[in-house]
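Annex B. Sample input.
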Amino acid sequence: MQTKRVIALGFFDGVHIGHGALLRRTRQVADSLGCTAAALTFDAPPAQVISGTPVALISSAQDRARLMRRLYGMDEVLVRHFDRTLMQLTWQDYIETLLLAELGAVHVVCGADHRFGFHGAGTAERLRTFCAARGVGCDIVEKVELDGAPVSSTRIRALLQAGELDAARRLLGHAQLLSGTVAHGAHRGNAIGFPTANLPFPAGVLVPPRGVYCAQAQLEDGTLYPAVVNIGVHPT
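Annex B, continued. Sample output.
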């Protein structure tokens, strides 16, 4: 039997407070319908596949999933491979084939500026009309504003690149999350009483400017430690 899902639609880079409005609504509707609360995202930015130009990300697909589960209670985060085959689906096929037939959507939630399908022909209003004809619910959530401007991943990327981490955190609603598997180094820190953990950054993810930062280190088991992070060159 296919899982019935309420699905939030978007790329969700960084999982900022604007995304949070969609995800909270998704959780609310899923609870009221007794369905699974899910978010649909992609392994690569659609704009990067379309243009061929790399897009620096705030978070990896794995970290987006962690944030959506931890902060907004998503039961599932569906990470789909975005390629030219998916890009060339008509907006009608995108809804009918992917959202309804494959993913079992009974209700969808998107932002007012959400675009999808070949050449971005699908809009939030087209989505709502198409879903209504098939008995599927649709909520369109307006953009969240802070300090007189819409909250967006583009705005947050600019702040991170400028080293304005406190301002970026306000828009994200949390600190930027960077995760990876600790790599062995030369163990010089151990020799002087300050052992360190070398963390390779995820490919394609935006890294704050060089400097020393206050941070929290979270292990896989959820344990949190106060931490100091040095972003720089070797040798330090």
